[in-house]
Amino acid sequence: MASTHLSTVRNDWTREEIAALFDLPFTELVFRAAETHRAHHRPNTVQRSTLLSIKTGGCPEDCGYCSQSVHNDTDLKATKLMEVQQVLQSAAQAKDMGSTRFCMGAAFRNPKDRDMPALTEMVRQVKAMGMETCMTAGMLTEGQAHKLADAGLDYYNHNVDTGPEYYERVATTRTLADRMLTLEHVRAAGINVCCGGIVGMGETRDDRVGFVHLLATMEHHPESVPVNALVPVRGTPLGDMLADTPLAQIDEIEFVRTVAVARITMPASMVRLSAGRESMSVSTQALCFMAGANSIFSGEKLLTAPNAGDDSDDTLFARLGLDAMELDVPCVAQEEMTV
User: Fold this and answer.
1) Are 79 and 57 spatial neighbours (Cβ–Cβ below 8 Å)?
2) Is residue 27 pLDDT above 90, yes or no?
3) Residue 197 pairs with which residues in a beta bridge?
4) What span, in angstroms and rounded, lies between the C-alpha atoms of 74 and 92?
5) Which residues are catalytic?
6) Angstrom distance (rounded) from CA 314 to CA 204
7) Between residues 172 and 177, which one has the greater pLDDT?
8) What CA dihedral angle connects 102, 107, 112 and 117, to 10 degrees?
9) Is residue 295 scored above 70 in pLDDT?
C-alpha cells in the first residue's frame, strides 16, 4: 500500500475491497494495518478503559448472546439502576488503577425519562473527575441524546453487533434500522459515536465483511470501534449453540484479521480490543496491537462477562513495552499528518 494512501479516510469502501483485505496473506495484512495505525495514532500507546454495569439484567431485548436478556435463562439477578455515588466510587477506583476512560452500561431497551437525571449526573460527575466518559443504555430519543450531550458525555456506545445479513440471527426485538436511528440521534447531539460488534457468533467471513462494511461506509466513521469476541454464556441461544464446540471461540488469526481490516478501513478511529480478551493468549493480544487495536478494557468484569483484570494488564503492558494513553496526549490528528 502506497504511503500516500495511509492518511486517507474513505467512506466509499466496497464489500469487494474489504473482502480482498481479509484475503491478504496474514503478515501483509497486519503490516498494512500497522502502517495505517502509525499514520494516525501513536504507536505502542494503548488506552485503558473500565466498563461498569450500572443497571444489570431485566432487559426485554432478545439478543442471542446476552446474559442480561429476560428471554435467556442465565440465572442472572436483575438489579436497579445504581446510585450516583456508587458509580463515582467505582470510577475513582478505576482511575486509581490507571483507566482514563469510564464506560457505564445499563441494560435498558431504552431509558425512561425518569432515568435521565441520574444518568446525566453520573456523566457530569465522572467527567469532573478528569475521565473520558462513555455510556450505553439502549435506544435514545433525540431529546435524551441532547441531555447526555449537555451533561458532557464524550461517547455513546450502541453496537450494530454484526453484518446486516446476519443481524436477524442475533436479535429480533429491535431492527438494525432502530440501531441506526439512535446513532443518528447521538451524532446530531454532538456526541462521539462508539459502535462495533461481536465476532465468533457463528457468522461467516462474508458476514464479517458486511459488519466492517456497514461501519466503514457510514457518513462519519464511529470515533470508537469495539471489536468483541463472543463469550459463550450458558442459557443464551448463541452460548448454548456454540459452547463446547470448535466454534465457541473464533479462530485467533481470524480475529486479528478483523481488527486489522477495521483499522485499515477506519484509520482515524479508536479500535478497542473488548470482550473475549480474557481467553486470548498474550501473543494474540500482541498481534491485535500490531494490527491497530489501541484500547483495552481493564478490570475483572465487562458488564457481566469475566475480564483479564488490572494485574494481568500491568504485566501485559510491561511485557510488550506498551505505554498507557494519557488524556492530555491526544491521538495524532489526521490534518497533522504528512506523507
Assistant:
1) yes
2) yes
3) 161, 227
4) 30
5) 59, 63, 66, 103, 134, 194, 272
6) 35
7) 177
8) -20
9) yes
